[in-house]
UniProtKB/TrEMBL annotation:
It comes from Actinomadura darangshiensis. This is Peptidase inhibitor family I36 protein. It comes from the Bacteria.
Length: 115
């Protein structure tokens, strides 16, 4: 008597599931993110607070975390579906700044544009 081995339940092989979107609650947008992700400082020499990827303002250890808005700006260098997207938030140390979209698991299209 021989055993037969087969592959069972491989529907949708090769397809990736879409990330769940960020959600709005309590005056902020909440997203699932990488714990310990860097929150980058912003350039204070411009009229708008654009990201300064050379300086880390703090880190975000909470998950999920809240965010306020998004911009398409300087390359994050992190790839992902939105390689030029930065998300405005407040780091765990109280410093305001930008998190790279690639450090956020949730789909961030639902966040409003900052300007």
């Amino acid at each position: 008597m021989g055993a037969t081995m087969g592959v069972v339940g491989l529907s949708g092989a090769g397809t990736a599931a879409a990330a769940a979107p960020c959600w709005y609650s309590g005056g902020h947008w909440w997203c699932n993110n990488v714990s310990g992700a860097a929150v980058y400082d912003y350039n204070r020499d411009t009229a708008r607070a654009y990201p300064d990827p050379a300086h880390i303002a703090g880190r975000m250890y909470s998950n999920p975390s809240w965010f306020d808005c998004r911009i398409e700006n300087v390359s994050t260098g992190g790839g992902g579906p939105h390689p030029n997207r930065w998300i405005w938030t407040k780091a765990d140390n109280g410093a305001w700044g930008w998190m790279k979209d690639s450090a956020i698991y949730s789909e961030t299209n639902s966040l409003p544009a900052c300007w």
